[in-house]
């Protein structure tokens, strides 16, 4: 897709930025917008749902990866930081910035067990069980956001794991209370 956008931009004189999200997570600070998929497949909401009793447990797919605790590593980025990167991208294009693709992440990896631990620290037990690896899952996917940092004069401010989990927890727990029978 990025190649198609590049050639379209060259053909029609349009500047563009392709923003490559890593694992978008969290909720807005006002508690109005959060992550809700059906079925839910994203790790942080899945772990929160298990802690809230909305699902029986979390499946930990693979415990034999070459990582600190054997579980896969991913780079989580708070949705508020993504929104800020979008605004800065539009400003950059308006000011005549070059077209390119930029990775939006933190450059910091977090394991599945670290996510479970972060949710557990909020006071609720997270039931989980180990499961076999999923085919094709790499041990680690972590952004190199250095070009986005430089080109957009941007740094994630809300993307430490505890901030992401706390914002998502507030949103999901409020939603669980409002939908309880």
Structure description:
Helix content is 39%, strand content 17%. The chain has 181 residues and is α/β, with parallel strands linked by helices. The strands form 4 sheets. It has a 3-stranded mixed beta sheet with strand order 7-4-9. Helix 2 (43-51) packs parallel to helix 4 and helix 2 packs across helix 6 (161-178). The relative contact order is 0.24. It has one domain (18-178): UDP-galactose 4-epimerase, domain 1, CATH 3.90.25.10. The protein has 6 helices and 9 strands, in the order αββαβββαββαββαα.
Topology summary:
Elements (H helix, E strand, L loop, with lengths): L1 H11 L4 E5 L1 E3 L17 H9 L6 E4 L11 E2 L1 E3 H16 L5 E5 L5 E2 H9 L7 E4 L8 E2 L4 H7 L8 H18 L3
Parallel strand pairs: 1-6, 2-5, 3-8, 4-9
Antiparallel strand pairs: 4-7
Helix pairs in contact: 2-4, 2-6
Keywords:
alpha/beta; 181 residues; 6 helices; single chain
How do you describe this structure in short?
This protein has 181 residues and is an alpha/beta fold.
